[in-house]
Amino acid sequence: MVTALVFHESYLEHEQTPTHPERKERLAYTFDQLMEEGIFESKAVEVVSPFRADEEDVLAVHTRDYLEFLKRESKTGGIIDWDTVIPVGLYESAMLAAGGAIRAAEIVDKGEAENAFAMVRPPGHHAKPGIGAGFCYLNNIAIAVRWLQRKRRYSRILILDWDAHHGDGTQEIFYRDPTVLFISLHQMPLYPGTGYPREVGEGEGEGYTINVPLPPGAGDECYLTVFDEIVEPVAHDFRPEFIAVSAGQDNHFTDPLTGLALTARGYAELMERTKKLAEELCDGRLFAVLEGGYSIEAALPYTNLAIIAAMAGLDTSCIREPRSYLSALDSVLDPSAPQKVRMTLEEVKKIHATYWGCFVRW
Ligand SMILES: [Zn+2]
Known about the structure:
With 362 residues, the protein is an alpha/beta fold. 40% of the residues lie in helices and 14% in strands. It is globular. The site of zinc ion has 7 residues, from loops.
């Protein structure tokens, strides 16, 4: 069984401006690196083409008014906000990215791949039902999760969002829904300013949103602690039938937009743990979707590689970023971050002890 890498050259076409942080080189440099590392020669990773999402699949998440707006504006060019302009042709790019996420989910569901990584752009996790934001137009992972529920009848799906920014769009989409457990690890303070532990979901969905804000300077150790103490035990309580990861890579220590300190090795370890969790809980059914990540030369080629290699079960012990970048790590890593994260973890566990048996002693 292979890991499917859903990718297409068309994912390089979307462009807001040539200097926008979310630009085509994010994927172009990554793909070059994957080729150089010989990752496809291992036969453990196979490139798979995406398809275009059907409107019906997108409308399970977004409003018709918003979809019509995107379609209309992308004919002449338009704007959502200054971070998120609508270039000509955006509609097709966004539909192909959403379709890439669905393709990743589909190929795993069919058993044609062990797991799948949708290396798509534009990203999606800030997109809400009625509006895009933060470089995002359509919420790719939410569309794929809804597709799995509607077309493949899965009843419980876990979304783990480790992008440096809070996945506010995904949270809003599933906020009242107990069938999707949304766990977000993100830097705070940072755009979009949401994602406090007290945001736990509403109505029937109360308890099914878990937010773990992290301080700037948090690195591999902090992330792995959150995984072991929050993600893993809650996932065992929830018993998902599928795991979906919003695999943002802007928590890398060289990212220009954030202040976190994850390393390529850290991404490999996070994905190895996630893969193990999927094997324990849902026959390994796991797909990931690229979100952010703006350190185009120093991070993305190595962090994407780390994630894909971990999914494919390749030896990741040698995964490191080039030594020339490592000197920057010490200036970003905050030695007091683990202590701050400890306090947040206690708060999250206390709040969620109402909903999850694994936290009852809090
Ligand atoms: Zn981000």
